[in-house]
């Protein structure tokens, strides 16, 4: 009888210890999940103040007349209707109208054609994904409050097409011969953008919903650095085709997103604000997302399966680019010239009053 009593007491003690272990495992995992990737050796420490401008292309536009900002231009030429967008959805939403909508669509078509010509495969993914997809991307759990969740469902609206693209091969093993995989995707992006807005960030500069074409690559460990340079070059080429003044900044470790080991930002000049704003962020994530999503490939030499490397880049985001376009190409008579590369998509060489 004593033995049975002792065994019951031991069993109860073991159960309590197991519960404690599970509790600490949960706490430990919740901390580990927030850990960022390890920065590349050439990435300096610090925050935004330590970012380095590594390239400047073109000259800031010079005007011989008093320029208007994109909000005023949009009102005069009926390109945007922010007042009615606010009526429909609340603050920091936009509505493109008439030639503004056509110019936006021309931009997207320009990007799509360039990516197809470069051999990238087009993907139109779901705009609603599950929590596991956000975890794999490295956006959850840290940024759980920054996305739009569906009520009573463990799904949310994508803040970027990257969230969908980096889950395509989750829990799968490819052959090395199938790599690299090069994709691009057009989607609206939905972001709460929690935090304060600067007084000059009016109109399209910072909104809850915007259009973006995203580039994404799956590569081998050896191929990811070359892929990074390719994505940077592609993003720059798109901005160059539009004839806009821009710079490339190499981000310090503290300004990189959690999954990134290295990030370059392509930033265009917004004349009315007098500042540079990012229109493409190119990141080498290496194995961070593939480890979270269990994405591997079989090496051609017959060795054990290895984790893929992944990279993402905007190609490009349109809202701030639209600001740069209409402000840079405004004329003294109030019209806006259309860059040559967009004219076949929009059908006119300038936008004027109706």
UniProtKB/TrEMBL annotation:
Domain called Aminoacyl-transfer RNA synthetases class-II family profile: residue spans: 111-339
One annotated GO biological process: seryl-tRNA aminoacylation
Gene3D superfamilies: Bira Bifunctional Protein, Domain 2
Residues reported in the UniProt entry to bind L-serine: 160, 191, 214, 312
Coiled-coil ranges (or none): 7-34
Top enzyme class: ligase
Catalytic activity field: tRNA(Sec) + L-serine + ATP = L-seryl-tRNA(Sec) + AMP + diphosphate + H(+); tRNA(Ser) + L-serine + ATP = L-seryl-tRNA(Ser) + AMP + diphosphate + H(+)
Main location, first listed in the record: cytoplasm
Record flagged with keyword Aminoacyl-tRNA synthetase: yes
Pathway annotation from the record: Aminoacyl-tRNA biosynthesis; selenocysteinyl-tRNA(Sec) biosynthesis; L-seryl-tRNA(Sec) from L-serine and tRNA(Sec): step 1/1
UniProt EC number: 6.1.1.11
Cell compartment(s), UniProt: Cytoplasm
Molecular functions per Gene Ontology: ATP binding; serine-tRNA ligase activity
Residues where ATP binds: 191-193, 207-210, 278-281
Gene Ontology CC annotations of this record: cytoplasm
Keywords: Aminoacyl-tRNA synthetase, ATP-binding, Coiled coil, Cytoplasm, Ligase, Nucleotide-binding, Protein biosynthesis
InterPro entries registered for this protein in UniProt: aa-tRNA-synt_IIb, aa-tRNA-synth_II, aa-tRNA-synth_II/BPL/LPL, Ser-tRNA-ligase_type_1, SerRS_core, tRNA-bd_arm
Source species, domain of life: Bacteria
NCBIfam families according to UniProt: serS
Family to which the UniProt record says this protein belongs: Belongs to the class-II aminoacyl-tRNA synthetase family. Type-1 seryl-tRNA synthetase subfamily.
Name of this chain's protein: Serine--tRNA ligase
Source organism of this protein record: Candidatus Dojkabacteria bacterium
Gene coding for it: serS
